[in-house]
Write a structure and sequence with these properties.
This protein has one domain. It is built from 19 helices and no strands. Helix 3 runs antiparallel to helix 4, helix 7 packs antiparallel against helix 8 and helix 7 packs parallel to helix 9.
Length: about 425
């Protein structure tokens, strides 16, 4: 019964989290659930709260935003909404640390695997239904289905593929591992996402560099890499004309999309590069502030006063947007240069923890390195750590990986032991 419970618990937890993130409002239920879960974990841990010192940087960012919003008189609904984006990942980061004292890593890793797997299968199914429709499929239609999971899918692929190399019990075995790898490869290949391709490359480099025994590249490995490139190339070549042209155009415009330097009086530029346009508006707002606002931000509740939302289907009923694709500019507006500095310092702390302080030859080391680097890069294009509808489970796993520095050997963590007892 104990073995059955250990196998079934991750499946149930992963499916439950998939349903929650799929159907629950992105902030309210997650925030309430985070508070409740944190209280339970603290009770299981006898009221002990364990965190790294640099976690205070995240608390500092939150306080800057709240105090700034109150000081500048932001409408309370807007202030609370912005604060929820920042509180939720903070709470799940704290939960991840507490789970280190209560739950075996293999249970959490497998739960994360099943959560991402369910989301991946649903996405692939929706993609097939889209093409099964008799109507032509546009690039925008395809991206609306495929968007999301840019950081999670490559990470799960690496965890499934390389867990054994780091002395970790395999997440799956035999045919199950092979099938899941194929599903994840299909999801990444057909994503048409520059960010996901970047994250896959980043994860490959980090996991290979962190392997306890790195071997020279084999001919077979080079062959697999070459075949992978051929697969992506064939996908792009045989994709429907409109989809191929739009994707290739986005590839050529990658660096321009994160730039705010263009003529925004031309509507076509706004339509083709909305990210750059909203960044340019935020840049002007930041430059219009006085020294204190540039240093400490305008506070939570401050809207970015973009216009032309009708061109790209963005609602501007409130007079602007609350969050940008470029997370660094979002933070510049909300918490200023000091807040952005605290954000970077936090991830510098996690990188140092992973590289120098006791995570060697463990799966936690590449996991923490990857998530840290991924967030630092992704913040330029997909909002980053503080995001509307972000992924608390990834944050939780990230914190759990950092917390392994505190206790290298796992005996029988309390929560896992209680789960096993309940099944007897």
């Amino acid at each position: 019964m104990q073995a059955l419970l250990k196998k079934q618990a991750p499946l149930v937890m992963g499916f439950a989290w998939f349903l929650l993130t799929r159907f629950a409002p992105p902030n309210v239920l997650l925030l309430l659930g985070a508070v409740g879960l944190l209280l339970v974990i603290l009770w299981w841990n006898h009221g002990r709260l364990s965190l790294e010192g640099y976690s205070g940087f995240l608390v500092g960012i939150l306080l800057l935003g709240i105090l700034g919003g109150v000081f500048y008189g932001a409408p309370w609904p807007y202030l609370f909404r912005d604060a929820s984006y920042y509180v939720s990942p903070l709470l799940f980061f704290a939960i991840g640390f507490q789970l280190r004292q209560s739950l075996e890593g293999i249970v959490l890793l497998r739960s994360f695997l099943f959560y991402v797997l369910f989301a991946t299968i649903l996405t692939l199914g929706e993609t097939l239904l889209l093409f099964a429709n008799s109507q032509p499929v546009s690039f925008e239609d395809l991206r609306s289905v495929l968007v999301g999971m840019e950081m999670q899918v490559p990470l799960v692929f690496m965890l499934v593929s390389f867990a054994k190399d780091f002395g970790q019990e395999p997440l799956l075995s035999g045919k199950g591992q092979f099938v899941v790898q194929i599903i994840l490869l299909l999801r990444m290949t057909f994503s048409f996402s520059r960010t996901m391709y970047l994250m896959l490359g980043l994860s490959l480099v980090i996991f290979w560099l962190c392997k306890p025994r790195r071997k020279s590249l084999k001919v077979s490995s080079l062959l697999y890499a070459f075949l992978g490139v051929l697969l992506v190339g064939a996908l792009i070549w045989w994709a429907p004309g409109g989809i191929k042209e739009n994707f290739l155009h986005k590839l050529t415009q990658t660096f321009q999309e994160v730039s705010a330097d263009t003529n925004w009086n031309i509507e076509t530029n706004i339509i083709q590069n909305w990210r750059g346009y909203e960044t340019s508006v935020a840049q002007k707002l930041f430059e219009s502030g006085y020294a204190l606002q540039q240093s400490l931000g305008f506070g939570f509740g401050q809207l970015i006063p973009v216009s032309h939302g009708e061109l790209v289907g963005v609602s501007l009923e409130e007079g602007g947007i609350t969050i940008l694709h470029n997370g660094y500019y979002s933070m510049l507006i909300k918490v200023g240069t000091v807040g952005v500095g605290l954000y970077v310092l936090f991830f510098m702390g996690t990188l140092i923890t992973a590289w120098r302080k006791g995570l060697k030859q463990q799966l936690a080391r590449p996991l923490v390195l990857y998530v840290s680097c991924a967030y630092l890069l992704a913040t330029f294009v997909i909002t980053g750590f503080f995001a509307r509808g972000g992924d608390p489970w990834l944050v939780l796993l990230f914190a759990y990986g950092i917390a392994t520095k505190k206790e290298q050997v796992v005996g029988a963590p309390a929560l896992t032991h209680r789960l096993q007892q309940s099944g007897q």
